[in-house]
Amino acid sequence: MLHFIPALSVFLLEMLIAYIAFSYLGERRFSVPLTVLIGAALFASGAAVNLLFANTFWINAFYSAVINFLFAFFCFRLALRPALLYAVLMDLLSIAFESATIFLVSALKGVTMTHYNSDLTTLAIETGISKTLYFIACLLLLRLSKRKGESLERIPLSFLAYPACTLAIFMVLWTICASEPLAERNQILLSVVSLVLIFSTVLLFLTYRHNLEQDSEYIRMKSELGRLQTEKTYYEILEHQDEELRLYAHDAKKHLAAIADLNHDPRIAEYLAALSDQLKSHANSCHSGNKILDVMLNRTTTECALRGVAFDYDVKLCNLAGMEDLDIVAILGNLLDNALAAAGKSEKKHVSLSTLWRNAYRVIILSNSCDAEPISRGGELITTKQDRKLHGYGLKSVKRTLKKYSGDYEWDYDAAAKLFTVTVMIGEKG
């Protein structure tokens, strides 16, 4: 029977390999520490089952597939079928390389296939060889895999040189062990070195994956910040143009009034009245006292008119004063973009916005018609656009900005009314 600590080491090693594989195939649902903790608990249960059933082959094989599936489905954003498929594939690869390694080492060394149960050195080296082969096979499998709607980041082939060298070292260690007997102290030392070697190989790829995620997140954050700054500059230009138009409208109304006083032709009077009405409609644009909010609402009004979407708003009770302009653009701009995009595809084509104070919080309530229920996982909205890496970042930007104000948001979908509503709570900047 395998001792629990070596068995636990083997299962934890498989957990790290599974983490690398599943993090390429789907986004994590939780933070890195929590994901690793959940995975460690799942795979530690595999070591316990292994000990409880005296290393029974078919029980180990079945339970390994189960914990791989649970880890993939609940800790990563993988659908049921792909999670099950990759769990079974990885389990079959692990069983195949483990069985082949045990058979070959036992045949070449002239011992029984269960010899590793009582020989710690043989166990460590067989584990190192089989898991290194398994790891290389998983990496090659990932290079052939694709996520739905987007290409998977390709793992550089040059990275495979490290596990290949690790495999060569294990073969040398096995040759040394097979050629002459070792003292118990040397066996323990060699076993520890073997486990450290295979763990370091896997941790190298784990670190690479983590750095890749951080770099990707940094690039997306930088891109989003650049977009928001560009949009803020655009709103500032619109605000300047709007100010110029208001001055022109103010002067033009006076000129029209003077002309009307001098005029005695009814046709000219009718024409002047029409011009005055147009100037009044411009003067009726939003004037909440917050320039960036006014420009955003005026722009949204124009966009909705062009797209045939009805838009109404009420910002009298709260004009979002006290917030930085860039933060208003990040929160309200992203939400309005999403609302307008969804409403434009709906039958009713309607968007409604209101703001108010609730205790010490600014509250934004934004509703839009939406014929299809939004896709979500764990309460988080999922973009329906094909390239999820380039899209779906708007709400992440909203959440990140709300943290600065100790705020949050929640959403609701009324299937009967086909109405999507998002409610945003914004406190004071910390």
Instruction: Give me the side-by-side strand order of the main sheet.
Output: 1-2-3-7-6
- Domains, number: 2
How far apart, in Å, are the first and last alpha carbons?
A: 58 Å
How many helices? The count is 11
Protein traits:
430 residues; alpha+beta; Heat Shock Protein 90; two-stranded antiparallel ribbon
Brief summary of the model shown:
The chain has 430 residues and is an alpha+beta fold. Helix content is 65%, strand content 10%.
How would you characterize this protein structure?
This protein has two domains: about 5-225, no CATH class; about 290-430, Histidine kinase-like ATPase, C-terminal domain (Heat Shock Protein 90, 2-Layer Sandwich). It is an alpha+beta fold. Mean pLDDT is about 80; it is low at about 150 and about 385-390. The two termini are about 60 Å apart. Helix 2 packs antiparallel against helix 3, helix 5 (about 120-145) runs antiparallel to helix 6 and helix 5 (about 120-145) runs parallel beside helix 7 (about 185-260). It has helices spanning about 5-25, 30-50, 55-75, 80-110, 120-145, 160-180, 185-260, 265-285, 290-305, 325-345, 395-405, and strands at about 310-315, 350-360, 360-370, 375, 380, 410-415, 420-425. It is elongated, with a radius of gyration of 32 Å.
Structural topology:
Elements: H1 4-25, H2 32-52, H3 57-75, H4 80-109, H5 120-143, H6 161-179, H7 184-262, H8 266-283, H9 291-307, E1 310-314, H10 325-344, E2 350-358, E3 361-369, E4 376-377, E5 380-381, H11 394-403, E6 408-414, E7 419-426
Parallel strand pairs: 1-2
Antiparallel strand pairs: 2-3, 3-7, 4-5, 6-7
Helix pairs in contact: 1-2, 1-5, 1-7, 2-3, 3-4, 4-5, 5-6, 5-7, 6-7, 7-8, 7-9, 7-10, 9-10, 10-11
